[in-house]
Design goal:
Number of helices: 13
Largest sheet: 2 strands, antiparallel
Helix content: 40-55%
Structural class: mainly alpha
CATH topology: Glycosyltransferase
Strand content: under 5%
Distance between the termini: 10 Å
Strand order of the largest sheet: 1-2
CATH architecture: Alpha/alpha barrel
Order of helices and strands: HHHHHHHHEEHHHEEHH
Radius of gyration: 20 Å
Length: about 350
């Protein structure tokens, strides 16, 4: 069964990459808006993730253009970005450069790594977590605060950088991983470990995550004591689990067990739980990363029926793919009406499952 699914995935990847190849801006090498090299980073990673060396040879010039564009966006502070969203763009472009494994990029990678480490919030500059946003990472604008989406993307890039370069770097500068987990924990709806006023005591939220402390895109509900609580939702709950994985937390930690329990109870591929169609392909991508890294191959739904999530998600994505090879979300929240972004998310999700099979 796995062999036939893998063949289906390969066909889908070939179609998707063929479409992405046509969408590249040949003169500059980028995809999408030039100011946001993350879009190019995601597209480049889609090509690099294809299992066939022949495909990589076929698109060598495309990749060369995309990587060249990313290098052209390296700033004097070490970040890789255009006019804004510095940490978001740097995290994704850093992942693309590390995946490419070219020695010429090592200085860029090290500088981008240091840039991301410096994006970690310490609002009172005391090294103490006395501000709820301390330890996290935001979009990189001077007025911005930390959020779970940017934090988990930065943690991902820095986790892989640490694994790849620790032998060369020795005990160099690194992210304050404990502070990062303190921030991440403050985004979790878990009254036993998170004492923030907004934390929900509702069973439907327990263990799940919100966007940042005090704000959930999924809305509010009332606690039993009458206080306003924030609802948990799918994509951020997978981002929370990924954050715990990148921080190499004990799999038996109550926070890890609680988010896995929430994700099991709310498992679906029909929507981003709590958000409906909003951010759906981001949700699929975080889901595939979190579940494969956790070694989870089956999930029991609310009725106790065991589901092969990998097979379900693959067949669902194949069904959603357009004849031209692209994907699109009819709901435009978080740029998901951009077929370059959504197609990259879909391809990366399929590649992740392909290697897990």
């Amino acid at each position: 069964m796995n062999l036939s699914i893998k063949q289906e995935i390969e066909r889908s990847l070939d179609l998707g990459l063929n479409w992405l190849n046509k969408e590249q801006n040949r003169s500059s090498g980028n995809w999408g808006i030039e100011e946001y090299p993350a879009l190019t980073g995601l597209a480049v990673r889609s090509f690099l993730g294809h299992p066939s060396p022949q495909v990589l040879k076929k698109y060598a010039k495309t990749l060369e253009g995309g990587l060249g564009f990313i290098r052209s966006k390296v700033q004097s502070d070490g970040g890789i970005y255009g006019k804004g969203l510095a940490s978001y763009n740097t995290s994704i472009c850093l992942m693309a450069l590390m995946q490419h494994k070219d020695q010429q990029d090592e200085a860029i990678i090290q500088a981008a790594r240091k840039f991301l480490i410096n994006q970690q919030s310490d609002f009172d500059n005391k090294g103490e977590s006395d501000n709820v946003f301390d330890g996290g990472v935001g979009y990189g604008s001077r007025w911005a605060h930390s959020d779970l989406s940017n934090t988990h993307l930065a943690m991902e890039a820095l986790f892989y950088a640490k694994k790849t370069y620790q032998s060369k770097e020795g005990e160099g500068v690194d992210l304050d991983w404990d502070a990062a987990i303190t921030f991440v924990s403050k985004c979790q709806n878990l009254p036993s470990t998170n004492k923030e006023k907004w934390v929900s005591d509702h069973q439907d939220d327990r263990g799940g995550f919100v966007y940042f402390p005090g704000s959930s895109m999924a809305g509010e509900r009332q606690n039993t004591n009458g206080s306003i609580a924030l609802r948990s939702y799918g994509s951020m709950s997978y981002a929370g689990l990924l954050s715990f994985i990148y921080a190499e937390m004990d799999s038996q930690d109550p926070r890890v067990l609680a988010v896995k329990d929430w994700l099991t109870k709310h498992y679906t591929i029909k929507e981003n739980p709590g958000m409906g169609p909003q951010g759906l392909f981001y949700y699929y991508h975080t889901m595939a990363k979190a579940l494969t890294l956790s070694g989870i191959t089956t999930i029991s739904d609310e009725q106790g029926v065991s589901k092969d999530w990998r097979k379900e998600l693959v067949l669902h994505l194949l069904n959603l793919q357009s004849k031209d090879g692209s994907w699109i979300n009819d709901n435009g929240r978080w740029w998901e009406k951009d077929p370059v972004l959504v197609t990259s998310y879909a391809l990366l999700t399929l590649e992740r499952i392909y290697y897990d099979l």
